[in-house]
């Protein structure tokens, strides 16, 4: 097949996949996780059910695809902060604040319970922990972060401490949590 034809088919598939994901997210927001059917998704997307099943096996697989896309966007956002340059301590602070605000934007509910079962979440956490470990190590070299605790442990501390941001009532509370977490990273006097 000519390359142009392949590109057109791939673009069409991506468009159908994206439209399916967006339709599903909108339906779940309106009706809840358990209130959405594949028939509703097919109708909302403007495709037949048989075509929908060529892309996704069920509602859960659509939501997992959406969640993977969201996580990818969050990791891309965090990578952009790391790549900006500047002192490692400042980049670490910006990454921690961004991560905490992302956590704050997500709430515990049926959807979160469903989405956090996938292996994609564990892989993303490992990726983020690697980013944090690297920043912590660089900031420790610069004297901005304590050296008496290994960077891997400090990265884990940050992830676990800031996971609590999802249950905080306000952005102000999230920013206070970030400050407390950063205080735990500072070198002892």
Q: Quick summary of this structure?
A:
This protein has 189 residues and is mainly alpha-helical.
3D structure, described in words:
The chain is an all-alpha fold and 189 residues long. The protein has two domains: 1-56, Homeodomain-like (Arc Repressor Mutant, subunit A); 59-189, Orthogonal Bundle (Tetracycline Repressor, domain 2), CATH 1.10.357.10. 76% of the residues lie in helices and 0% in strands. It has nine helices and no strands. It has helices at residues 3-31, 38-45, 49-55, 59-83, 88-104, 110-115, 119-141, 151-163, 171-185. Helix 4 packs antiparallel against helix 5 and helix 8 (151-163) runs antiparallel to helix 9. The radius of gyration is 20 Å and the shape is elongated. The mean pLDDT is 91.
- What pattern of helices and strands is seen along the backbone? HHHHHHHHH
- In CATH, the topology of the largest domain is named Tetracycline Repressor, domain 2
What is the total tally of β strands? Answer: 0
Strand content: under 5%
What is the CATH top level name of the largest domain?
Mainly Alpha
Quote the distance from N terminus to C terminus: 68 Å
Query: Which CATH architecture of the largest domain would you pick?
Result: Orthogonal Bundle
Q: What's the main sheet like?
A: none
Average predicted local confidence, pLDDT: 91
Helix share, percent: over 70%
Number of domains: 2
CATH homologous superfamily descriptor of the largest domain: Tetracycline Repressor, domain 2
Low-confidence stretches: none
The geometry reads as: elongated
Number of helices: 9
Structural class, please?
mainly alpha
Radius of gyration: 20 Å
């Amino acid at each position: 097949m000519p390359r142009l034809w392949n590109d057109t088919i791939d673009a069409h598939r991506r468009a159908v996949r994206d439209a399916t994901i967006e339709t599903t997210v909108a339906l779940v927001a309106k009706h809840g996780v358990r209130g959405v059917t594949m028939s509703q998704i097919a109708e909302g997307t403007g495709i037949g059910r048989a075509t929908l099943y060529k892309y996704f096996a069920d509602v859960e697989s659509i939501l997992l695809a959406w969640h993977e896309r969201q996580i990818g966007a969050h990791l891309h956002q965090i990578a952009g902060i790391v790549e900006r340059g500047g002192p490692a301590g400042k980049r670490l602070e910006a990454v921690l604040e961004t991560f905490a605000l992302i956590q704050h934007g997500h709430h515990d509910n049926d959807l979160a319970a469903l989405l956090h079962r996938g292996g994609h979440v564990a892989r993303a956490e490992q990726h983020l922990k690697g980013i944090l470990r690297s920043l912590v190590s660089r900031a420790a070299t610069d004297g901005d972060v304590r050296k008496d605790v290994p960077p891997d442990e400090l990265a884990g501390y940050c992830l676990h401490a800031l996971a609590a941001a999802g249950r905080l009532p306000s952005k102000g509370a999230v920013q206070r949590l970030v400050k407390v977490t950063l205080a735990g990273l500072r070198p002892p006097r």
